[in-house]
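Quick illustration, no need to memorize.
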Amino acid sequence: MKALVYHGPGQKAWEEKPRPTITEPTDAIIKMYKTTICGTDLHILKGDVPAVTDGRILGHEGVGIVEETGSAVTSFKKGDHVLISCISSCGKCRYCKKGMYSHCEKGGWILGHLIDGTQAEYVRIPFADNSLYHIPANADEEALVMLSDILPTGFECGVLNGKIQPGNTVAIVGAGPIGLAALLTAQFYSPAKIIMIDPDDNRLETAKRFGATAIINNSKQNAIEAVKQLTNNIGVDTAIEAVGIPATFELCQSLVGPGGTIANIGVHGKSVELHLETLWAHNITITTRLVDTVTTPLLLETVQSKKLDPQQLITHRFKLSDIINAYETFQHAAKEKALKVILTNE
């Protein structure tokens, strides 16, 4: 089969790899139908995730069709259309029993990280009964790719960890796909203001269409002053960091008001400064999290009821075999006006 293979920082190739086989009775082999590229894949290519080694197939999102199942798989059979979770869960360890699937002692985020991932014609999914979801008949499978990772990530790591409540003020730093996913799902809780901050005017206009009440281009405006003007000089109740670089985490520390929460979503490859000299007396909560995907069933229901439209996050479409060009587009998102790309295995 063909797959997108990592060969060290800055190096990737679309090449021939052995087709995966069942290695444990809880495995399933999925023929990929649609997948996508994540900002985390770009962090890997920058060398920010050293656990990813030469020869690894990248990718941790997508939908597909069950090709084969191990003898212990009971919930899925050949021919089933499935959504692949970016997190693999054994369902039995102490962390899984707490709903902390990202810390599963045998799984967690392993696809495209510690084992071969979904940017391929076929993928092996461990713990299939706990790591796949049936796709309802007549569902928009392309849109459901957004439920593999970015929507539960934005919701769990940003909105839920950020403790957003009705009437709150929220600032989201970063209007990329994850930030926009947080914006879409934050509206479940009716905050009074959602302020989107990004240096890209196109993404800010998209955020405005998606429901942001205010947009700030921090390459042209002083974001701290602008947010203070919007919040009666108080700061926001929740500041969501959705980029993963020191400057944006530092900005969140300046935006949050007393008693507020900084919810980190971004994947950080470098250390950041924590300004305790300013925050020590401000009753600030700082949260970190890797998505657990515990909200995926809820989000599936929300999409099926048309209360949430993930399709609007998709801007570009490619054949899976054209994945190198898809990466070029995604890596130059501002120039290409790209949010999420869809790759179809034809």
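The chain has a mean pLDDT of 97.
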